[in-house]
């Protein structure tokens, strides 16, 4: 049975620690629709524990600050992180991620990805995806990308008669869709999609 | 010039593993203003340099040790000799070197002359003639290739114009220390449009083949020039010194291209803390190839400042950490002008309790539109005692850009190993083959003789850890 937790980024700075035990499975989503600061630690305590850590930040002004720690303490544990941000106007975004695989966690599998889309000249990004690996029988990869909307995609849509603003919105929605798709609950997924749409209509 | 060269050469044969008590001059242990004044006076330096050293010493005293990276607390600044003028006669013999070092020399097949020279025991040197004609040839093209002390005497204005301008003496504690007590290093000036075919090797410059304790290198590449500078060697460099803090400044003018290759193989009792920077103007290309095998702790992050439109920076970094070693290395790419691009490729191997850390910064400033950067880090951890870290930092202040980072950490692939062993190759050889393949993208950029030595050296490290 997979536990799903949906959390919000709040203006109030906060910290949260979650533990995943033997053979348990967790899906955690941090929804960032307003500026704020959050630090989330996921401890994979039991053999075979798995965690999926998801995050979204849509910013217009102010700073979204997200820190995540994926801590592997037991053998054969898996963690998979995907956090995306879309930055309009004067938004800034600060991501600091850490995967820590302790000596006690052989057979660990860890993944961490942070993609950021810049829609304004004034938007700022600072991303620090970090790894500390103390076991050798592991597979760990991470990646981060930051850039603006792909010109070719935009050109394709506008050439089909879609207005530029609308085309941008479609691309942004598609960009964020990857995160939503990972939530293993149709109802929750639809609810979140609606919420995001409202937010995007509002900011764009 | 030949006579000058000869002087440098003969003076240089004094360098070596001479025992401290046989030195002609040695400053007292530890550092104070008097020691610095003495160093400057012994070298008959211009007043501005003495002042620069003294000011730097003030910065050094004020600066705290960095709180990140490796463990620096064990460095005892008061127990170091900051300046030693070598003896007139090389005292130490080949036999006096630690057996581990000798064995490595033999096994990686360092040429006899280089071997003797590195050990500081060679009285005659086979390449002397080669060296003379090389220097003559360079001179005809207007190239200056000297040790930094001689350059300061012969070209004081040129040195002063660039000195400390991309690595200010207050940049960090170790840059400040170097600025206060520096000695030796290379000075290279290549005029406009001149392209140098053979790599300029510190080894050929003879007097810099042994890297100094606080060496200072200054390189100026005028518009459209093109050359490759290579320092260090694959053979381990034995030293009883415990701390090495170097500063390297490279100026790449419009359309020029400089490649700077370092192979660091200090013995495993050395703290190696180096600040290296390139300033690259429009359409220029700067490349660092940085291989770190030795030392107890290395903290080194070669940087490219991309100042002009179209400038490009590249770093290929390779580190190996074995028993008791921490290699904290990486690089920095600072995009200041539009249409600049950079790439970092890092390969690290940790084994036998060693620790490797990649630490890097990519910064895209607000004026650097249409800039691109890509970082790829791969790490191999060969056993359960070893460790690998990745600490990248990306600061992006410009929308019109593409910045990518990716890293993987793993052990040697089971399938790869199985495949090779099923072909009748024993495990040890198979592992070495896989590791050589892993570092291939970097090794293939080295001059052939170094590439061959590097592969042998890695193999040797593997053998040792098994035995």
UniProtKB/TrEMBL annotation, chain A:
The protein in question is named SUF system FeS cluster assembly SufBD core domain-containing protein
InterPro entries registered for this protein in UniProt: Fe-S_cluster_assembly_SufBD, SUF_FeS_clus_asmbl_SufBD_core, SUF_FeS_clus_asmbl_SufBD_sf
Q: Which GO terms describe its biological process?
A: iron-sulfur cluster assembly
List each copy of the SUF system FeS cluster assembly SufBD core domain by range.
Answer: 37-175
Q: Which species does this protein come from?
A: Candidatus Kerfeldbacteria bacterium CG08_land_8_20_14_0_20_40_16
What does the organism's lineage look like at the top? Answer: Bacteria, Candidatus Kerfeldiibacteriota
SUPFAM superfamilies on file: Stabilizer of iron transporter SufD
TrEMBL record, chain B:
Q: Which InterPro entries match?
A: Fe-S_cluster_assembly_SufBD (IPR055346), SUF_FeS_clus_asmbl_SufB (IPR010231), SUF_FeS_clus_asmbl_SufBD_core (IPR000825), SUF_FeS_clus_asmbl_SufBD_sf (IPR037284), SufBD_N (IPR045595)
Residues in the signal sequence: none
Question: Gene of origin?
Answer: sufB
Recorded coiled-coil stretches? none
Task: Provide the organism lineage as a comma list.
Answer: Bacteria, Candidatus Kerfeldiibacteriota
| SUF system FeS cluster assembly SufBD N-terminal domain span | 45-201
Homology family? Belongs to the iron-sulfur cluster assembly SufBD family.
* Species this chain originates from: Candidatus Kerfeldbacteria bacterium CG08_land_8_20_14_0_20_40_16
One Gene Ontology term from the biological process aspect of the record: iron-sulfur cluster assembly
UniProt protein name? Fe-S cluster assembly protein SufB
Residues annotated as domain SUF system FeS cluster assembly SufBD core? 204-438
